[in-house]
Amino acid sequence: MMESTAPSVFHAFCQVLARDLRLHFRQRGDLMNPLVFFILVASLFPLGVGPESKMLTQIGSGIIWVAALLATLLSLDSLFRSDFDDGSLEQIMLSPQPLYVLVMAKVLAHWLVSGLLLVILSPVLAVMFHLPTSAFPALLATLMLGTPLLSLLGAIGSALTVGLKKGGVLMSLLILPLYIPVLILGTGCIDAAVNGLAWSGYLLWLGAMLMLGVTFAPFAISAGLRISISG
């Protein structure tokens, strides 16, 4: 019985993942908006505070992380919205496969087209803020661990507000307090690397939080969707 069930669950996961990736790449405007927002937000700060390299180095880690956080938040409202509008979300919930597996596939697709691209673009912004090359590994590592966690936590708020017509503001209020520890650890890790201090401890905490998120967030997302749909 277990041998016949496991492949079908994995197959359903892959189907939902492939479907969401196709939809994201068809809607290229929605795909590019978070990336453009990420670059614009980070680019405005040097214009506002001045071109002094020492100042930009001091604030660079925080600005990059805040820009990544806001860009992720910008793309979360559409995570379940289109499926809710066309009725496919109800079909997913009625699927015989576990809902937490299917929502995990949707979150993974969201991260691949948003968070992963932010990670790839981050070295460009690091050069803009005169971060030393020795801090690049810390920057990439924190974003690789932190952006999936942002997607997981954000999906909880998106699931709870998917049934509301204007749930973007409420979703932001629900999610932003959960993002604060991730922001503190991410910026602290990069600042430690810039100053030549040990930064592996920050990564361990981010990794532990990511493991907790992967373990428990899909169940919270599933519960949030059931509350929104039934309500």
TrEMBL record:
Topology term for the membrane: Multi-pass membrane protein
Keyword RNA-binding: no
Keywords: Cell inner membrane, Cell membrane, Cytochrome c-type biogenesis, Membrane, Transmembrane, Transmembrane helix, Transport
Entry superkingdom: Bacteria
UniProt keyword Transport present: yes
UniProt-annotated location(s): Cell inner membrane
Primary residence: membrane
Function text: Required for the export of heme to the periplasm for the biogenesis of c-type cytochromes.
Protein name (database record): Heme exporter protein B
